[in-house]
């Protein structure tokens, strides 16, 4: 028991000295530099010439030894970009957003909300889908969530359950 107390005391002492500060930090005035000192003498100065219409810009070409790159991945990156472009050309769908107005089991409620959407925003055509066992009412297709937010805020005034959900938009 006495041995444990000695070890604990020793560790406490070591911890105390480790946590103690290294000394008083030098303040701005003791370091010899004041906040009001003028340092403009030590700054480098450059002449700036503004190009005029009559002046022609010159291209500076630095010539140097030919450098070889050991780990060049440019061709691999080009191949990857080309494969991504090929996939996107072949894609029939793109990720986007829509506004879900209703999700529930009642077809009548879905039709009621569809009519409310027609009254609230006549520019958009709501669509009812059936994902067993729920009917869902969606409005609009947007590529960006910010675009969808404008319609969502209009619909929230009359239909507080309207939310933005991710969807797949078919490309034409």
From TrEMBL:
Residues 91-171 form the SPOR domain. Keywords: Signal. One of its GO terms (molecular function) is peptidoglycan binding. Pfam families: SPOR. Residues 1-22 form the signal peptide. InterPro entries: SPOR-like_dom (IPR007730), SPOR-like_sf (IPR036680). The keyword Glycoprotein does not apply. This is SPOR domain-containing protein. The lineage of its organism: Bacteria, Pseudomonadati, Bacteroidota, Cytophagia, Cytophagales.
